Amino acid sequence: MVSSGASESRATVILYDGMEKKVRNESLVIIRNKNGGDVLAVCRGGRGLNENVKTGSFNPGVAYARRGRIPSSAKEYYIFNLEVIGAVGEDGIEQNKLIIAPTSIVELFSDEDDPMKLLSKGSDLTIGHYWGRPNWRVPILKQYINYHIGIFGVTGSGKSYLARYEIIPLLRKAGYSLIIMDWKGSDYAPYFEPVILLDKIKVDDFTVLSYFSQLTKNFGYHGREENPVASAFERALRTVEWRGRTPSEARDLLYRKAKSILELEGSRLKKTETGQLWLERLEASFELITEEEIEKFLGTMEPWEILAEAKDKGIVVIDMSKGEKEQKLAAFYSITRYLKRLMERKQRLDVALIIDEGPQYAPWQPRGLERETTDLIIDLCALGRSYGLSIVILSQGMAGEIGLNSAVRRNLNTQFIGRIHPLDFEEAQKLAASYYISPETLLTLPEGHFYFLGRMNPSPTPLLISFEVDK
Ligand SMILES: Nc1ncnc2c1ncn2[C@@H]1O[C@H](COP(=O)(O)OP(=O)(O)O)[C@@H](O)[C@H]1O
Ligand SMILES: [Mg+2]
Question: What is the mean pLDDT of the segment spanning 111-127?
Answer without folding.
Answer: 88
